[in-house]
Amino acid sequence: MSSASFRRLLLTLAILLASTAPFLSAAETKKTPPPADAGPKPRQFIYLLKLAPRLHDDNAWTDEDKKTVAAHFAHLKAATATGKVILAGRTLEPGSRTFGIVIFEDIDEEAARNFMNRDPALVAKVMSATLHPYQIALQRPPIAP
User: Fold this and answer.
1) Is the pLDDT at 60 greater than 90, yes or no?
2) Which of 39, 61, 72, 129 has the fewest CB atoms nearer than 10 Å to its CB?
């Protein structure tokens, strides 16, 4: 390529860049405001669940206790499906050492406490729980199967 052709190419590129710059900068600076009816931004909370001491022995579980834990799981599964619960699970340790966590979003601490207190495992006193404000700092992206 001759130097004259090269200069024409550079000039053409410079003109193209200059002509698109206003559109690029406008697109970069344009912010979409949140919807007016968005309401308060949800906050994250975590509650830590512990088994009632009488259930530390696997042989102590009654059919009613098992039904309660099934209702607890269904409650959290439904809340996960709606997007309220981010993560829920438990440790795989003996009853005296095991605990569960529920990380979820709600509008404020009072609403979060009400959600926690409606958990069937707490209502039936199969588990106890403590609520804490929480903020996820890092989260890995979903891994494709």
Assistant:
1) yes
2) 39
